[in-house]
Amino acid sequence: MAALPWSTAARVAWRELRASRTKFLFVVLSVAVGVAALTGVRGFSASFRHTLLIRARSILAGDLGARMFQQPTPKQLALLDHAAAGLRRTTVTEMASMATAANSMDPLLVALKAIDPREYPYYGRVDLQPSMPLEQAVGNDSVAVGEDLLIRLRLHVGDSITLGDRTFRIAAVVESEPDRLSGAFAAGPRVLSSQQQLAETHLLATGSRASERFLFKLPSPDDRVVAKLKAAVEEALPEANVSDYRETNPAITVALDRATDILSLVSLVALVLGALGVAMAMRTHLLERLDSIAIMKSLGAQSSSVVRIYLLQTIFLGLLGGVVGVLLGVAVQVALPLLLGRMLGLSPELHIAGSAVLTGILTGLIITVLFTLPPLLDIRNVRPISILRRAVDAEPAPALQQLRQRLRANLVQVGAMVLILAGLATIAGVLSESRKAGLIFVVALVAVLLALIAAAALLLWILRRTLQRTRFSLPPAVRHGLANLYRPGNPSAALLAALGLGVMQVAIVFFLGQAFTHELKLSTRTDLPNVFLVDIADNELLGLQSLLKQQPEVRGTPEFVPVLSSRILSVDGVPAAQLKLKNFPQRMLQSITLTWSETLPEGTTVLQGKFWQPGETRAQLAIGERHAERLGVKLHSHIVFAAGSDADRPIDAEVSAIVRSDGQHAYSRAEFILPRAPLDGISEVWYGAVHSDPNQVGELQRALYAKYPTVTVINVAQAFEQLRKILVQVQLVVQFLAGFSIFAGLVILASAVAGTRYRRVREVVVLKTLGATRLRIGSIFTIEFAVLGLVAGLVGLLFANLSTRALLRQMDLGYHLNAAENLGMWILVALLTVATGWLASYRILGQKPLEVLREE
Fold it and tell me: Where in the cell is it found (predicted)?
């Protein structure tokens, strides 16, 4: 008999689809929900990540920043012009200067910041009081100043101050600057002027201790373009400190990196869950069609013709599920910003690219086709008589033995499995934008799936042996319900493995989201320091602490850190003058700040090595990761310091820990931490950090200036509030997208359980014919579903906790086993399995035996 033409096969496939619409609902639902989770989560997270990165750029005021602690040479400027050709660039000059006012005899040290008001800032805005455009407040004869300058010089808006050779009118008070956290923390009140005004003061001359910061704006920035520009700027300015928008604040950097990792995982989980749903639903459907397939083969149909019919049917289902899934995914991208926009305080732009739609449809189609290949190929080598007698076959072998027999019997199946894995690796690589990540994902998935199959088979074996010993002491419904798990034709091991994998994936997303949220809550507390105090003398410390306790606007406990001036003499035996540094000016080696701490400071995390115990007397050193990279040091390296004025007493410190600070505590700017003993006797000053109501920092400044006029107050309350809002937005986005993925996963798992309903029709008929009541049959099904849920939940949660622990370790997050959460999820999985099984099976309890028997 000739092979069936493709057109005829398509008509047969379509006719069967139309005749069995309800049966195929589970397949379409699995594909659609998987694709919807994939496209919806991926598109929504991409839109919000783009919007959040715009907010993160405002902390730098540009896409890239390069800071030099000296004036650039003409040659360096020429190299910079070449490196950033065609890009927008502006210069920010920061320096210390003296300011005087007519009503004050004493000059005041101020932090002067010169900008180009037509260009600065590229992102964010400068908030002024009274509100006005920046070009109006800065330029000609006007400058903007910090409120602390008005307090110290007893001035008001409209008064004048003198800087160098020029006198300027104070046009406005600077309430916040977008790059306040990435700019220099110079001592003294802020004065914002233009570059032209700075030139007219004649303060900037050769040898001036002024820092030059270059800000760049790209037309359409992405990570690769920014990285390329960063490398070019580092080459042009080898002594500059170059950072992009992702490095402006450690908390932002870590939060965005972790959020990206989790959201990528969410997309991959959606992929796996969709594949699981398709695999279970299509496997069930093809097993139900074995009778029809056997009849066709008995009438002379070739295996290739049968495969062609069901392959086309699979393609139809995959395309339909993919289209429905993309529509649902687009609906998610439209609906979630509307629901969350007010809560998050931002509205991301909706970007629905044709490539994303095509990717979603192709993903649904490829997954459907790939996971239908094994049951399709199974039909090729099975005789019709064997298929028709399958219901009375001998007891099946264990799952692992079946797998070995199948591999030996049919190498084509091996090829199909390799093709499935290659397809999953390709899709995972595209989603994660990394071939290596896709390969690792698939290898880990295979390892876990094999472990789950083995665990499921082992549990079924234990259950069977236990039932053989206790069956006569159990109620009939319990006995039949447990026996149903390994009855002939029941794919319990496969279903348990699939459900266990699904539970594991959903639980991983939940556990990671919980750990990430917990970490972010620590970074978004409302009592974190937002006002920093500089140059506190030893004899002022106790009195200052007492004063802060009396201030109603101060919340939480103030933090204080001792600071000692020093310089680096050598690193690993290499003199400082001969060191080859990476974007670290040589002159900075002469002005290193040391501090001491007996315990790991709050907000500091050890990345490598170990922090010392209280009472340590050896010269141990904890160094910030960025300085470690720039100085080229690692664990057990030796750095020799000359601390304080005692140059004859060098301190040879061994690097015992490389640490990272969250940028939100007093120790955040301490890159070199030692125990107290090696620094004992060296003069020190103190820096402080307190939290104040952002709207009442002025009152705190007045109280401090009245009693401690030499203590400099650095107000970054508005900048830290902006940072806190960004972190809260990241937290909410991850929570909602993880929640959506979990919901989609539960729907897919439910559809996989429900897909077994048609295999139960014949069983119900046989039991009814033998006199079983609906209540008895319902009790049997309930016990079977409950055990399925409990076993799958137990195995899935076990592997979820193991996987989560490994993933959290990679993300530098702590793992904490929550017994209550695991118990709750275990019970929820069991209840969901029972509820889904019942919803899918209650109708077949009313099936009349004669209707089914007539079809035999």
Answer: Cell membrane
Tokens of 737: 């997208």
Q: Which of 578, 607, 631, 632 is nearest to 811 (CA)?
A: 607
- Picking from 703, 696, 668, 718, the residue whose alpha carbon sits closest to that of residue 530 is 718
Contact (CB, 8 A) for 448 and 504: yes
Answer positive or negative: Cα dihedral of 548, 549, 555, 561.
Answer: positive
The kind and range of the H/E element at 207 are none
Contact assessment for residue 145 and residue 170, using Cβ atoms and an 8 Å cutoff: yes
In whole angstroms, give the CA distance from residue 668 to residue 662: 7
Distances (CA, A) of 465 to 234, 552, 555: 69, 71, 64
Q: DSSP of 604-657, one letter per residue?
A: EEEEEE-PPPTT--S-EEEEEHHHHHHHT--TT-EEEEEETT-TTS-EEEEEEE
Classify residue 511 by burial, with Cβ atoms within 10 Å: 0-12, 13-18, 19+.
buried
Nearest to 428 by CA among 199, 605, 255, 267: 267
- Which pair of tokens denotes residue 326? 């993309």
Per-residue pLDDT of 606-623, as tens digits, reads 888 999 999 899 999 999
Which three-class secondary structure state does DSSP give residue 18? helix
Exposure string of 513-537, with b = 16+ CB inside 10 Å and e = fewer, is: bbbbeebbeebbeeebbbbbbbebe
288, 352, 360, 286: which is closest to 325 by C-alpha?
Answer: 360
Alpha helices for 172-222 (secondary structure H): 195-201
Phi first, then psi: give them for residue 563, nearest 5 degrees.
-130, 130
Determine the pLDDT at residue 457. Answer: 75
Q: Which pLDDT belongs to residue 847?
A: 60
DSSP state of 565: E
Q: Name residue 595's beta-bridge partners.
A: 673
> Could you give the 3-state DSSP secondary structure of residue 683?
coil
Residue 336's contacts (CB-CB under 8 Å, 6 or more residues apart) are 40, 44, 736, 740
Q: Would you say 244 and 337 are in contact if contact means Cβ atoms under 8 Å apart?
A: no
Residue type, 485: L
* DSSP letter string, 255-316: HHHHHHHHHHHHHHHHHHHHHHHHHHHHHHHHHHTHHHHHHHHHTT--HHHHHHHHHHHHHH
Q: In this structure, what DSSP letter does residue 815 have?
A: -
Helix, strand, coil shares of the chain, percent, nearest 5, are 60, 15, 25
Instruction: Quote the pLDDT of residue 673.
Output: 92
Which residues does residue 101 pair with via DSSP β-bridges, in sequence order? 104
Which residues are CB-neighbours of 470 under 8 A, at least 6 positions away?
none
**Burial profile 160-173: b = 16 or more Cβ within 10 angstroms, e = fewer:** ebebbebebebbbb
Beta-carbon neighbour count of residue 773 at 10 Å?
A: 11
Q: Which of 267-281, 515-529, 747-761 has the highest mean pLDDT?
A: 515-529
Element (H, E) at 233: helix 223-236
- Strand 64-68 to strand 142-145: parallel, antiparallel, or no bridges (unpaired)? unpaired
**CA–CA gap between residue 430 and residue 36 (Å, rounded):** 17
State the pLDDT confidence band at 637, using cuts at 50, 70 and 90: very high
Give the closest residue to 777 by CA, choosing from 484, 463, 390.
Answer: 484
Q: What is the largest CA-CA distance in the chain?
A: 111
pLDDT at 523: 67
pLDDT digits (tens, 9 = 90+) for 287-322: 667 667 777 777 777 777 777 887 888 788 778 888
- 3-class DSSP assignment, residue 742: helix
The full set of domain ranges for the chain reads 6-54+254-344+351-522+725-853, 57-253, 531-715
Pairing of strands 166-176, 142-145: parallel
Task: Identify any residues that bridge with 127 across adjacent strands, giving them in sequence order.
Answer: 176
pTM above 0.70, yes or no: no
**Contact status, residue 416 vs residue 374, Cβ threshold 8 Å:** yes
